[in-house]
Amino acid sequence: MTHAGTAEGGFGIYIHWPFCAAKCPYCDFNSHVRHQPVDQARFAAAFERELSHFADLTKGKAVQSVFLGGGTPSLMEPATVDRILKAVSDRWSMDENVEISLEANPSSVEAERFRGYRAAGVNRVSLGVQSLIDTDLRLLGRLHDARTARTAIETARATFPRLSFDLIYARPGQALSGWEQELNEAIALAADHLSLYQLTIEEGTPFHTLFHAGKLQMPDPDLGAEFYELTQNVTAAAGLPAYEVSNHARPGAECRHNLVYWRYGDYVGVGPGAHGRITVGVSRLATSTERHPETWLDNVESHGQALIENAGLSEEEQGDEFLLMGLRLTEGIDLKRYERYASRSIDPARLAALIEHGMVEVIGENRIRATREGFFVLDAVVADLAA
């Protein structure tokens, strides 16, 4: 197994807070609703222990980003966030420009905690707005209304140096003209970053059940493609072009943590159901932890970690992952770096065919990227190049 200069991709820490106030009907993330208060001090102590385990394996690395994701991290008390971030800075050296992001719901209760999160060191917040239209927020199972979301965006802009928020489009019954109007409002509200996701039906979710029972009408694929095209054009014209399939930013305001993933850097994943990729010696390891929160807690308290996967990746797996992540970016990938991971070159005939069909383009020496057409069928493009 090789390791191919992970410094090129950076180093980040992902912390998964698995609890939500309610489960959204489209969500297939590892999130859990608890009707009794969560023992936050006990969970914080467990995060400290699991961070220690990974700190021992990744000595000498400087942290460029910390991301508190979920679930709903804004259900944490600021004191819990402060304790977890202190645990990170006690165990690693922190880059002077470290990005510390926290995902938050745009409820008024959570917005009241923003100042506490800022004092704890959070310098970027990502709000799960999802829509600026009340009827659609109800359909999506969100607990906030559009007015509360707008207020939370204003509060976040006033509190944090950097802000992003998410919207979901191609919703049941949504018209292109309505989305264009909503997107323009979002751009006016946004500071410098938007995450814009096309609604997908994920197995095991209530939306999946409704869709297959004929009770949820989704846009057909051609209309879905029009939504995507419109989204790219409107954001680019407003100065927030896509830098990744679903993420848009003013140049320089890209989410540094997500870039660690897409540039195939190293990242530690702690908390229930967190995934990581770390280089130890010459091996690149895939790690994942126990998904069930209380089982995770028991395991960490007993063993100092709750790993259920801790396996070396083969050269082929590393090459495949590098393609899968890197081709999501508009900056594309360095073919020489691919060769260092995979210990082989991409088949020139396959690459030539994809270029000829307008799915991939060459950008500078040894770099390729997916075209806009290629983004629509990215999985197929990756599979072709990896074959």
Textual characterization of the structure:
The structure is a single chain. The protein is an alpha/beta fold. The chain contains 16 helices and 17 strands. The protein has helices at residues 40-57, 78-91, 108-111, 114-120, 134-139, 146-159, 176-189, 206-212, 221-237, 256-262, 293-303, 315-326, 335-342, 348-356, 372-376, 378-386; strands at residues 11-17, 19-20, 32-33, 62-70, 93-104, 124-130, 162-169, 193-198, 242-244, 247-249, 266-270, 275-280, 283-289, 307-312, 333-334, 360-362, 367-370. The strands form 4 sheets. A 9-stranded mixed beta sheet has the order 9-10-8-7-6-5-4-1-11, sandwiched between helices. The protein has a 3-stranded antiparallel beta sheet with strand order 12-13-14, with no helix packed on it. Strand 9 and strand 10 form a beta hairpin. Helix 7 runs parallel beside helix 9, helix 12 (315-326) runs antiparallel to helix 13 and helix 12 (315-326) runs antiparallel to helix 16 (378-386). The protein is globular, with a radius of gyration of 21 Å.
